[in-house]
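User: two proteins, same treatment. go.

Assistant:
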Amino acid sequence: MAATMGRLTSVLRQQANSTVCRPLFTSTAVHNDKPEGGKSWFTKLFPEKIQAPTDAHSRLLTAKDLVYEMQIHDVKPEYMEQYKEMTEEYYPRIHQSSEFPGEVKGSWYTAFGYQDQAVHLWIYRDGYDGVTRSEEALLGDKEMREFIEKRQNMLRARSNQLLLEFSFWGEPEPREGFNVYEMRSYQLKPGTMIEWGNNWAKAVPSRRGYTEREINELKKQLGPDW
């Protein structure tokens, strides 16, 4: 384990940023039949499947077409409680809507680290096409537009990232109870993604069985560093 962690550290350009979060709410997966339709400009720009030139790359990258979106909202302190209430009301509605192609996998607010910040994780099972259609679905719904306008006034800043999962992780699942989560981000040296993924895949089984439980590890495709 120590040797593996040493190899992981060697490929880092910058050590981890770490924030401790508590859940706003969690949701169970809802199965929605997805209309096939045509491909969007977003899908054409970014291929649905990443072609891996080597076996190592193939093991590192996921075989699924899943795309994750991580939303980060910096909330004005005076609106934090109101923001939580609105999010808990509207996000499950979006999740359950047959018109919306994504699913919310979890929502958290920060307890230590960055303050007055909320983090939401969405999953799109039909890849980048679902990301494009999600915006169309929200803007086409009057009630959702009103929710977004109200939320805008509560935020100091907001950003999002599009991410892909590593092949050695499954999808994150809701957990019972009031849990505490740690969110980390690592900046890797250029060209070390494969080495990082292969070594981390070896390290994960060694961590299991302790008090903490891993949720997921994702690699950023688009968006600012967190």
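Protein 2:
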Amino acid sequence: MDPDAQIAFIVFGAITMITLFSVGITNMRKMVEARHKVTPQNNEEINALRYEVQELRGAVHDLMLQVEMGEKPVQVADRLTPPEFNKH
């Protein structure tokens, strides 16, 4: 193989490797961005879940206080059910 062909082969290989590497990096970057992208809808869902967790913590805390004071505990489900659903 003559020296010009060797140089052409090395240059072609280097360009191919650089191209494949850059395509791979670009695809990885897009995947990471898509994974960490927070949409307003997701943000609203997260805030709603945080509120529900706070409500549950409050209900459990109140239940523990009622048990410690010897009172008849109120069911957690009754405490967390919105008033419009409690109308019998």
